[in-house]
Amino acid sequence: MGQDGFFDRILRWGSGDGRSGSAAAGRNVHSTEFELLEALDRPVCAVCDRARRAGDRYISGVVREGVNDPGTRDSWRRRGGLCARHWRAFRSQESSPLPATIVSEDLIASYLETGSPGLDCPACEIEAIAERRYLEALGRLESERVEKALEHGRGFLCLHHLEGLSDGPVHERFRERLRDVLSDLAAFRRKQDYRFAGEPAGPERDAWLRAMRVLGGDV
Ligand SMILES: [Zn+2]
Ligand SMILES: [Zn+2]
């Protein structure tokens, strides 16, 4: 627990169902697995997707209540605020400009008084914690459940998260998914040939985007 309860709060804001503490642990494990399987339905890296959402929930928590919380504001001053990616996430929140006004006034005044504290983005930390949690949950999932999710789902793991996943049948299944992406890339390229251009578009139509996400994560 942080001295001002900050970490308790950021973990609460970053967690899937807004709960914290051991009483909710069983439920959290269950919802973590459910969230992963749900993400595998979509053409994204399931771990990147869930981690980004945890960061977004944290920022939305700060926008809603954190700007009125002296502990959070102190912590942001000590950590130098957000990285550029998370300022973009802050900016994309549908809220009045007041929360941004309050925190940026704090940060710029603090910079002028005491100099730069260096940047230690709290939203990046939330994402890193979520990343570990989801990757561990994925390692615990039975391969049959992953198989079932991938049978109709279009999800995958980016190379970074595939490397972080322990060896075993689930790891092997995600490697196979990369081969699917590769064959979809070849199918897309083939249809650029005028002789095949009239063929209806299939699952290969967004292969380029999935491939970017495989290589770059949350693209
Ligand atoms: Zn990823
Ligand atoms: Zn960040």
Describe this structure in words.
With 219 residues, this protein is mostly helical. Helix content is 67%, strand content 0%. It is built from eleven helices and no strands. The protein has helices at residues 6-14, 25-39, 46-64, 70-79, 84-91, 98-114, 122-140, 143-152, 159-164, 169-191, 207-216. The chain starts with 5 loop residues before the first helix and ends with a helix. Mean pLDDT is 87; it is low at 16-21. The protein binds zinc ion (2 copies). One zinc ion (ZN) is lined by residues 82-83, 85-86, 121, 123-124.
Associated small molecules: zinc ion
Instruction: Assess the beta-strand content as a share of residues.
Output: under 5%
Could you spell the SSE succession in H and E letters?
HHHHHHHHHHH
Question: Average pLDDT value?
Answer: 87
In total, how many domains does the architecture comprise? 1
Structural class: mainly alpha
Helix content: 55-70%
User: How many helices does DSSP assign?
Assistant: 11
Shape: elongated
Evaluate the radius of gyration: 21 Å
Tell me the distance between the termini.
Answer: 33 Å
Largest sheet: none
Sequence stretches where pLDDT stays below 50 over 5 or more residues: 16-21
How many strand elements? 0
Could you list some keywords that capture this structure?
mainly alpha; 219 residues; binds zinc ion; elongated
